[in-house]
């Protein structure tokens, strides 16, 4: 089962089918599928819109503490990982059987430790901060599923973003928004307020078909007993053979010198500097930096300032697009739904999404080529 963000289930299902998964089915913020061990490595490496990949071990009915303990104890834990590894249990539930997820995690921990003691006479230690092995327990009403979390840290931690600026966007969210926008690497790309450069880097990886997690060094499955390092290496090599050439430009601007420095460093970390250029620029003083069609995706500040300034800021976004960016598909995500009204252009698409806990909108403004007057759609 692959976990994802609100609304990204169809994107993730498509990614999984393209990678070769079997029996792909969309759930709520997750997609279930079938694949072998090599496919699990490939899913962790390549999926852009997955947060975690779980390997379900067992699903059973649970009515009390004893059912839980017995079912967890029954699993062959020493066969999954060695006693020298540390582990942690993460429980999510929507059930009347237990009223505390911590209690469920503790009970399950007891069962796992007791199983190790019974079979190998030694026990693994718990480490809730940075465990080697993560176990997920999900209880919905009376149904409990125990899974191994094959990813470990969330897959948005791609390994290239060492430096972050204010309000960096989650990498999985960025990739999902880019895919929603139809970004396919067939035009030039521009983020006028690039912050730490997340859209630029994810856009380059999509354009070149570079595996999303090529820069990441570790996954929880590397601590499992059945970890097959040579199979993993083969999967990485085979995925790298599928990269493609990209003949357009990816450009990022930011007004803040510190953001430009961070973005540049992250681009270097991702080994993508041959495709991406970052410059210090105030978007409101710029003109379209390329000729021909331009694909733009960005998230402006949501409003740390006074509302009146934010509204003016969004009005300037509209004016700049209208006057200086013909032939541009401008996609913008914001949580400031009030300020959005001040852009003054009618979006041709408006999609509900979330940025973390904040409800947001992804909007598309289509700026047509030709005479500046009258070709764009102006909000009445
Ligand atoms: C919400 S952050 C973008 C975060 C970015 N997507 C990331 O992943 O790090 C907004 C950015 O807009 C920049 N900014 C604000 N006003 C700007 C302007 N007039 N021109 C260019 N950049 C601007 C800020 O410096 C900030 O880095």
Q: What's the CATH C level of the largest domain?
A: Alpha Beta
Main sheet characteristics: 7 strands, mixed
What level of helicity do the residues show? Answer: 25-40%
Strand-residue fraction?
A: 15-25%
| Estimated structural class | alpha/beta
- Total E-strand runs: 14
Query: What's the CATH architecture of the largest domain?
Result: 3-Layer(aba) Sandwich
State Rg. 23 Å
Shape: elongated
Give the overall average pLDDT.
95
Please provide a written account of the structure.
The structure is a single chain. This protein folds into 2 domains: 2-149, VC0802-like; 171-210 and 243-367, Rossmann fold, CATH 3.40.50. By secondary structure, it is an alpha/beta fold. 32% of the residues lie in helices and 23% in strands. Helix 3 runs parallel beside helix 5 and helix 6 (171-180) packs across helix 7. The chain starts with a strand and ends in a 13-residue tail after the last strand. Helix 9 links the parallel strand 9 and strand 10 (276-280). 41% of the residues are buried. It binds S-adenosylmethionine. S-adenosylmethionine (SAM) is lined by residues 165-169, 192-196, 198-199, 253-256, 259, 282-284, 299-301.
């Amino acid at each position: 089962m692959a976990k994802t963000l609100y609304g990204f289930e169809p994107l993730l299902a498509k990614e999984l089918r393209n990678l070769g998964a079997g029996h792909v089915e969309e759930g709520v913020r997750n997609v279930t599928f079938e694949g072998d061990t090599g496919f699990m490595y490939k899913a962790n490496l390549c999926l852009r819109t997955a947060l975690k990949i779980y390997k379900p071990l067992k699903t059973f009915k649970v009515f009390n503490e004893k059912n839980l303990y017995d079912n967890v104890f029954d699993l062959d834990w020493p066969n999954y990982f060695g006693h020298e590894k540390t582990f942690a249990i993460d429980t999510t539930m929507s059930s009347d059987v237990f009223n505390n997820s911590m209690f469920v995690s503790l009970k399950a921990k007891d069962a796992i430790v007791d199983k190790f003691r019974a079979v190998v006479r030694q026990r693994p230690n718990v480490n809730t901060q940075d465990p080697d092995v993560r176990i997920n327990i999900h209880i919905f009403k009376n149904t409990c599923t125990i899974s191994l979390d094959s990813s470990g840290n969330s897959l948005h931690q791609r390994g290239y973003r060492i430096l972050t600026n204010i309000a960096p966007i989650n990498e999985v969210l960025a990739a999902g928004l880019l895919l929603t926008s139809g970004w396919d690497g067939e035009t030039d790309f521009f983020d006028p307020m690039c912050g730490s450069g997340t859209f630029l880097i994810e856009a380059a990886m999509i354009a070149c078909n570079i595996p999303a997690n090529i820069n990441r060094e570790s996954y929880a499955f590397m601590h499992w007993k059945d970890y097959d390092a040579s199979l993993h290496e083969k999967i990485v090599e085979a995925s790298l053979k599928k990269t493609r050439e990209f003949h357009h430009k990816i450009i990022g601007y930011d007004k803040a010198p510190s953001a430009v420095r961070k973005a540049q460093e992250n681009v270097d970390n991702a080994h993508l500097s041959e495709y991406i250029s970052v410059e210090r620029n105030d978007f409101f003083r710029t003109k379209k930096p390329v000729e021909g069609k331009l694909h733009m995706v960005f998230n402006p500040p949501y409003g740390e300032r006074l509302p009146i300034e934010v509204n003016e800021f969004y009005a300037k976004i509209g004016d700049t697009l209208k006057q200086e960016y013909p032939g541009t598909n401008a996609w913008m995500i914001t949580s400031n739904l009030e300020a959005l009204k001040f852009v003054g252009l009618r979006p041709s698409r408006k999609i509900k999404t979330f940025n973390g806990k904040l409800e947001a909108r992804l909007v598309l403004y289509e700026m047509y080529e030709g005479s500046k007057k009258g070709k764009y759609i102006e909000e009445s």
